[in-house]
Design a protein that fits this description.
The complex is a heterodimer of chains A (112) and B (121). Chain A is globular and about 40 Å long. Chain A is built from no helices and eleven strands. In chain B, the strands form two sheets. In chain B, strands 2, 4, 5, 6, 9, 10 and 11 form a seven-stranded mixed sheet that branches. Chain B has a four-stranded antiparallel sheet with strand order 1-3-8-7, with no helix packed on it. The chains are: A mainly beta (112), B mainly beta (121). Chains A and B meet through strand 5 and strand 10 of A and strand 5 and strand 10 of B.
Chain lengths: 112, 121
């Protein structure tokens, strides 16, 4: 199975400052159709996950534009341009290129 | 508005069985793959099983294969997960999620609130 390693696992951030989370895959995630099926999810405390980003860099409907995704091959990044209080929680990357789908271990974002 | 509402969780003894349900609304249920994803207490997310729109294809994570059956009733807009021979390591919140097609690679754009399964004597 594809292993996704996120870093850091814990990320204390200051309100209004940027934040960045890395997701590194054990295998290249380019599918035969040329797409990379790498998603990002956010889970607030006590809530179910919400998908933020699909196919590396596409924001889901209603996701603020302060969230952006990038990357290629085996290295991917989720960036928050200016952290807001509602952004706390755990962020997961997930790959859907290679069967079975797998998640990273999660990065906990908290406010300093 | 898309809604997914899980039910059926609870406390069950090791070796016991449980059937989880997910009621879907707000979208065309019968044109979407559906999945179950679980989260052990304080842990990360794990895909468990998925099922094709018409139920003709089903896939499972190795750890539940042979002990769980995913099914759906498109007439009732409902998804199910029958779990048997439950183990302590099956203790988790089980989420119903839309998507999971290995063809379109579109996964988990909507999630339910989850239902807690606790396996303990």
């Amino acid at each position: 199975d594809v292993v996704l390693i996120q870093s850091p696992l814990s990320l204390p951030v200051t309100l209004g400052q940027p934040a960045s989370i890395s997701c590194r895959s054990s295998q290249r995630l380019v599918y035969s159709d040329g797409n990379i099926y790498l998603n990002w999810f956010h889970q607030r405390p006590g809530q179910s996950p919400r998908r933020l980003i699909y196919k590396v860099s596409n924001r889901d409907s209603g996701v603020p534009d302060r969230f952006s995704g990038s990357g290629s091959g085996t290295d991917f990044t989720l960036k928050i341009s200016r952290v807001e209080a509602e952004d706390v929680g755990v962020y997961y990357c997930m790959q859907a290129t290679i069967w079975p789908p797998t998640f990273g271990q999660g990065t906990k974002v908290e406010i300093k | 508005e898309v809604q997914l509402v899980e039910s059926g969780g609870g406390l069950v003894q090791p070796g016991g069985s449980l059937r989880l349900s997910c009621a879907a609304s707000g979208f065309s249920f019968d044109t979407n793959w559906m999945s179950w994803v679980r989260q052990a207490p304080g842990k990360g997310l794990e895909w468990v099983a998925n099922i094709k729109e018409d139920g003709s294809a089903r896939y499972y994570v190795d750890s539940v294969k042979g002990r769980s059956t995913i099914s759906r009733d498109n007439a009732k807009n409902s998804l199910y997960l029958q779990m048997s021979n439950l183990r302590a390591e099956d203790t988790a919140v089980y989420y119903c999620a839309r998507g999971g097609s290995p063809l379109s690679h579109d996964y988990f754009d909507y999630w339910g609130r989850g239902t807690l399964v606790t396996v303990s004597s």
